[in-house]
Amino acid sequence: MRQNWLSKILVSCLIFVSFSGLRAQEKQLSPELPLTKAEKTNFKATSRYQEVMDFIWQLQKISPYLRVESLGQSAEGRLIPLIVIGRPLPAPGVYLENDQRLVLYFQANIHAGEVEAKEACLMLARELVSHSQSEYLKRLVILIAPIFNPDGNEKISPTNRRNQVGPEEGVGIRPNGLNLDLNRDAMKLESPEMIGLIQNVLLRWNPALVFDGHTHNGSYHEEPVTYVWQLNPNGDLELIDYMSQEMLPEVSRILKEKYNTLSIPHGDFMDIRQPEKGWRTLGPQPRYLTNYIGLRNRLAILNENYPYKDFKTRVFGCYHLLLSILDHCVAHAGEIKQLISQADQRTIELGMNPGKDDYFIVDYEVEPLPEKIKVLGYEMSLEERPGQWPRVKINEQAKRTYEIPFFAQFKAKKKVRYPYGYLLLYPDPKVIENLLHHGIILERLEAAFELEVEAFQLKELQSSERLFQGHHLNQVKGEIKIIKKVFPAGTIFVSTAQPLGKLAAYLLEPESDDGLLVWNFFDRYLAPQWGRRFNEYPVYKLYQPPAFSKKVIESLK
Questions:
Q1: Torsions phi, psi for 299 (to 5 deg)
Q2: Sign of the C-alpha dihedral computed for residues 357, 337, 195 and 436 taken in this order
Q3: Taking Cα atoms as reference points, which of 82, 129, 137, 130 lies closest to residue 109?
Q4: Which residues of the chain have pLDDT under 70?
Q5: Are 209 and 286 in contact (CB under 8 A)?
Q6: pTM score > 0.90 for this model?
Q7: Residue (of 553, 556, 550, 352) closest to 449 by Cα position
Q8: Which residue of 238, 313, 501, 509 could cross-link 309, Cys pair, CB 3.0 to 4.6 Å?
Q9: Which among 17, 18, 26 is positioned nearest to 320, based on CA atoms?
Q10: Residues ≥6 apart with Cβ < 8 Å to 405
Q11: pLDDT the model gives residue 169
Q12: In Å, how far from its chain's centre is CA 18?
């Protein structure tokens, strides 16, 4: 997969020559091109919802290569705009299966207090339509959702996220109109915003790469831009390797050499008192959007902008990151298409003939990547405060470069056998609706059939005492047994021999750390009304291709 040195030189030259017309630095804009709210206020304020809408509608008026569509409606009834950019512009409703261009999706403002990517995405849309003859629009179709959480955005106040440096007129809040954290909703799908994303972006446009823009609260360092890739090891490992070893190191190099912007992989010091211990990224659960995208066999980038730089620096850092991603994707469009096609095929083939050694990971441990990273930091100390969290103190005059291990490689701590498919004993509408929303193919048995299956007998069920996103999260322990069971007509069958087979496994495995059992979808079936014992988990695993007759389910009706 790695290119040789000559190929890298040729790619670098292609990037430099092809995009020399796209200027990374601030410039004089044509009078007809709109300014963002941040630009109009010298970065003292961020855009409100109507200002975002006015900005993108003005771009649509002046460019034949941009169209504003709807990603969906927010919980409070606001249209969530989706900007579509391409030359030629794809017709509305057309699926791009035979289009040779690579589709990219850039999303901002999932947490509406984290606003740099919102402003940067608007600037990117303007840049693309003002240079419509660039290679970007020739080789790519670019989708942008600049204000994914419009309800949270409209609650702007200078008292929100007071730890970050600007904008001084304030930012929005983290949750949506239903008080849900949208970046915890990718599996349970309880928000109209996340359902709209899957239905109107992922299933319709099938983007090869998803970018999700955030602002971090964490460790002190000089680099204004941080990033990380899809992390869950149940996803395709070749895609993970491509992102961690090829694409994002190249994007970081472009950022520095072309756009004069420093970046590092996203994480935090594991121990402020001993920074040399290492740098650790976030967890692998697919409730987080970028990890979820990885389970769908697509590339994903989480961007966390550094909150202690000024707002203008953060916005331009994010903007340069977006341009660097485009640079890489144009130069490697064919390779990326081939990689994701092969990942889909591997997933299908695994489901068609899973062996005894094929597995699904239900518990992880994290290890450092082979190569250390460099963090441009400072001398730090902790100030203890009785009854409060310790305060980190830095000496900005005493800069230090930390060359430390980066803990971002998740491996199996516990694994279970990967099946041919799952049988759902009860046609629960909420479970079926969730699986269909994800785009998972479901089939219904047309007649009763006796099958040898693996059953999971619950022995212990623990629900979290503290509510999380309105749920008492479940954890179970149990024992596996092989049984023969008659499944009636109407039983739901979920094959893993489909591109979303690993996502289906994550949702349906009883010991999965982020599946439907965790999120209370099966609570009513786990215990009888009387007594202290538990029932069998009502989802059974099948390891051999069945001979039963079945029909694809198109909807709940």
A1: -85, 145
A2: negative
A3: 82
A4: 1-31, 93-97, 556-557
A5: no
A6: yes
A7: 550
A8: 313
A9: 26
A10: 278, 279, 368, 369, 372, 373
A11: 97
A12: 29
